[in-house]
């Protein structure tokens, strides 16, 4: 693994898990010192992460961790609802046994409540599964779209995992989709994928409404305009997650 690849992996992990909070300014010198590398790998890794939507590069100002907004989250899920079911249907017609074997391995993974590293591992496998299904469709344009959408969704999904206990439910849905693909049942794979995404939207809607309210209350106290979701510290993330979790439990 090269210095650039290692930095990309570490930097992506810290952005997804909010160790580096949304909106945070980043300098090449700071990143080089933090991750013990030179400026060249920093530039290359940041360009890669900018292409994936994790970092925003502003000329003459530098690098910034891209903000999280409710609008972007909703838009990404709308795109997912359009493209993922079609990718699954095509995959059921074109998959190979080797591709199905990989999908089955990714689909079975369950994240563990209160184990944050398992959240990130789940998100990596979740992305691999959906992109793997798109690859099995043999349509490279679908692969590009699905990869872009699921990469960007990782940060949003991470915020919700600690306030939910849907690990088994998600694994069941994933395994059902892969089983339909394996049996070459295109319409069943399409329908199960549509239901899975609809369920994900339902599961996350209340959570992000709560997070949005917390963000707006903070913005109002500072007399600022409506702000995107920001987690300035991991403690802030934990505090909001606990509050949302209590609301979820109370609603059951």
Q: Stretches where pLDDT falls below 50 for ≥5 residues?
A: 213-252
Percent of residues in helices comes to: over 70%
**Structural category:** mainly alpha
Biggest sheet architecture:
3 strands, antiparallel
What is the overall number of helices?
10
Structure description:
The protein is mainly alpha-helical. It folds into 2 domains: 3-65, Winged helix-like DNA-binding domain superfamily/Winged helix DNA-binding domain (Arc Repressor Mutant, subunit A); 70-208, GntR ligand-binding domain-like (Four Helix Bundle (Hemerythrin (Met), subunit A)). It is built from 10 helices and 3 strands. It has helices spanning 3-16, 28-34, 39-51, 70-94, 97-107, 116-136, 140-161, 167-182, 186-221, 234-251; strands spanning 25-26, 55-58, 62-65. The chain has a 3-stranded antiparallel β-sheet with strand order 1-3-2. A hairpin with a 3-residue loop joins strand 2 (55-58) and strand 3. Helix 1 crosses helix 3, helix 4 crosses helix 6 (116-136) and helix 5 runs antiparallel to helix 8. The longest helix is centred in the last third of the chain and has 36 residues, at 186-221. It is globular and about 55 Å long. The chain starts with a helix and ends with a helix. The relative contact order is 0.13. The model is unreliable at 213-252 (pLDDT under 50).
